[in-house]
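Working notes for the structural subgroup meeting. M.R. asked for a predicted model of this chain before we commit to crystallization trials. I am recording the input and output together here so anyone reviewing the notebook later can reproduce the run.

Input as submitted:
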Amino acid sequence: MSITTDVIQKDQQFSVPVAGRPEFVLARGEGATVFDEDGKAYTDWVAGIAVNSLGYGDKELMDVVAKQMRTGLIHVSGLYHTKALADLAELLCEVSFADKAYFCNSGAEANEGALKFARKLAYVNDHKNKTKVVSFSKAFHGRTLGALSVTPTEKYQTPFKPMVPGAVVGEFDSIDSAREVIDEDTVAVIVEPIQGEGGINLASAEFLQALRQLCDERGAALIFDEIQCGLGRTGELWAHSFSGVTPDIMTLAKPLAGGLPIGAILVTDEVASAMQPGDHGSTFSGGAVVMRAGEMVVKRVLSAGFLEHVKEVGDYLLERLEEINSPHIVDVRGRGLMAAIELNVPPADIVAQGYEHGLLLVNSGPSAIRFIPPLIIEKRHVDELIDKLTTILEGIDGDG
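Returned structure, recorded in token form:
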């Protein structure tokens, strides 16, 4: 029996079936490429769902992790100080709007914490009637119950209802809708500056500015979910920068530790002041190994030329996607290395054929394919992608 067959059989027998995985087994990675157990190479346009910003096998990242591991201080819990945690908290506050940082283990956990922080702020300010949380159509904020409650997708919510009460949904990028749903009982407004799972939908500067004004007027906390779109993916450090406004709370996760599990909640002093020891916590938050990885990743993203590279290759990706002459592509959109093609055929068909052509692809919503590769991807990879996508789409034309 081959390794591939053995692994797939074990996975099917012993793993909870919440993911539909293709029929190959990944074994190693290098740069923007992963290889399966049979040696086949795949150019990675998924990056672990926008996680592996430095790709695979980055020597500096591996050295930083190994160095911290060798100290023996892998985990001590949040009960004790470590220099690694303090250093990453300081760095993130220095390069953002934030005054304080809290660390956790995932994006969903970060959003859960953000909602708690907002409610605690209202509570200590004696606004106990403020319990509504506004999110927007096509949003995705996570699969834990609180985060799922502000993720208004029926197929995700229905089997797990009832949701946490107080969730209200407005129309994404509609100022008029925002004005209708944000009122005096709103405790928080949560929004992705660029929606990831929902289809790579870009919020306008005017929309984010209106949310800031409405939150100020109604006494609500503004939460920017930059779990997928933040930390360099758009060619700027933060995806909201173009809007000229800042949130009260920002959540981070996916790329922050180069592939290790992490989440972060960045907040103003006003928000932080509402939280007291015992109000929130997580056993594995702030582990020293993960903190050192996070510090290294942030510094790399801020290093000379890194963001310029993301913007240059991202612009090139959008230009080349626009050049594909296929009746199945109805729209191309994105910013930086966060792009999508809207299709009039099922994305699953394209993803499946991508495997045959040595591409890892992923859908975004029901009708789009998104491109969220390692941020080290190069123009030659874009050219390869366009050639293979063109061939795949032409094959669908021929079948149709």
